Amino acid sequence: MNYETLFKAAGEKTVRAAIVGAGEFGTSFIFQAMRVPGLEVPAICNRTVQKGVAAYINAGIDESDIRICESEPEVKKAFDSGKCIVVADGLLLMNLPLDILVEGTGNPEVGALYGDAAIKNGMHVAMVSKETDSVAGPMLYEKARKNGLIYTAVEGDQPSLLIGLITWGRVLGLNIICAGKSSEYDFVYDPDAKTVSSLDKKISVPGFDDLWSMNDRTAAEMLIKRSELLSALPQHAVPDLNEMGIVCNATGMKPSCRAFHAPVARTVEVPEFFTTKEQGGILDRAGVVDVVNNLRRPDDASMGGGVFIIVECEDQATWKVLEAKGHPTNRIGSCAMVYHPAHLLGVEAPISVLAAVLLNHATGGETLKPICDLAGCTTKDLRAGRTLRSEGHHHVIDGVDGILLDAFKAQGDNPVPFYLLDNAVLTQDVPAGTTLTCNMVRFSEDSVLRRLRAEQDRYFDKLLS
Question: pTM for this one?
Fold first, then answer.
């Protein structure tokens, strides 16, 4: 694909984008966008406005060209004079002549508020906040479509990248056995110290040398042995479930199981694990999604954050050639992995922004339907009256883990979408091992996210019945 000719064909239009959220993703997007011909970012919204100012300065904008605005007249004056605008309230930007809103706060309620408002005001939406997308993405997609707009996930983040890889494989007629992503943080084995570390946690693992290579052991056996030996390290994370649920909604694929197998595996072993049991793998069926915890040594290249598809080697002669060129295959040669080993955060996101505005194309998928929902299951007894709170980068709710289920209506004794649990209050005691349902909690009355989800449940009533 020649991207220069792709976008040149759309003409000379200058694309104007606003970004909500000046965190890691937003800051990298702003920096890169300033270097993309035909793309401007005249406005940033961030709750702490100084972070927005710092993002502009980091991108090379002189501080004298930046204006912090607190009202619509101030915003209009700054825009008309060519200044870069920073606001704490994104609703102040809705009457500007902007083409697209890039929502990157990671806050499910804020993402719903600004995504919905942008569509109502004629803007395309690039939804980086997967927390919002997992609860009400299909509804926002439909609202945008009916207004002749694009609602999309973004390149540079794993859901869009994996959707791209899956659809690329489908166009080529490849039989996809499994599609997935590497968890955010590698499992790094130090053979000298006999330790395995993941992020900031390190454990001693004497005897792990024996589990470094599969040798003649089965994938199922290695899954269990490595998982047990590394049980002190987290092997499942809510964001992984969340992102893969979005992939399901865009592709129609389903999870291999409610919380994924998530094996600890070296890159070359991935096609060994993610094929069917009949072919020596761990999957009950083909055509599913899953997650891998990438195992490597300190001097090995990382696959952290990468995406992959496992395809059937139907043409054995061709795949023998490709195996010799470095494509990982399973031991019996029936399946191979095609993978993209990294995601580039906001550095790559301009591709989705330009595609939405110039080509009317959603890189995150041309249709979104509720196929899967992320729900919550209690890991310990919880008492009535407790307020549930999602905290930290991993969106941890103390005492609640994530599970991926078939899509459901968020009402009555059906489960609660995971990110609607944030700030909900338990109305009854709930024992460990219970899937939290809507009649077990009291929600905030003024939640935009909950309103959008109710609209989605009504819109897709037949699909969910």
Answer: 0.95
